[in-house]
């Protein structure tokens, strides 16, 4: 926009284009990119938690831990609602 300041007649249209592209960029960032990034971060956190749980379980099996202790350790990776639903089945006896 500021490349050619000698031509005063092209300054207005160039300014309009600059403002419109800024507006479109801001709208796209706030309406599309940010929600998409937030959803990707949530999925990434869930996947990382699952993989950490798998690694912890494999290491516990390899170490020969007691299955009840291992089950209690792995239940700590779950959120409270899921933990309550699964805890009765896992820790029965």
Defining traits:
78% helix, mainly alpha, 93 residues
Can you characterise this structure?
The chain has 93 residues and is an all-alpha fold. 78% of the residues lie in helices and 0% in strands. It is built from three helices and no strands. The protein has helices at 11-63, 67-75, 80-90. Helix 1 (11-63) packs antiparallel against helix 2. The chain is rod-shaped, with a radius of gyration of 27 Å. The N and C termini lie far apart (76 Å).
Regarding quaternary structure, how should these chains be classified? Answer: single chain
Gyration radius (Cα, Å) is 27 Å
Q: Which structural category do the helix and sheet elements fall into?
A: mainly alpha
Shape: rod-shaped
**Series of secondary-structure elements, N-terminal to C-terminal:** HHH
**Residue-averaged pLDDT, rounded?**
89
N/C terminus separation: 76 Å
Strand residue percentage: under 5%
Topology:
Blueprint: H1 11-63, H2 67-75, H3 80-90
Helix pairs in contact: 1-2
Can you describe this structure in just a few lines?
This protein is mostly helical and 93 residues long. 78% of the residues lie in helices and 0% in strands. Helix 1 packs antiparallel against helix 2 (67-75).
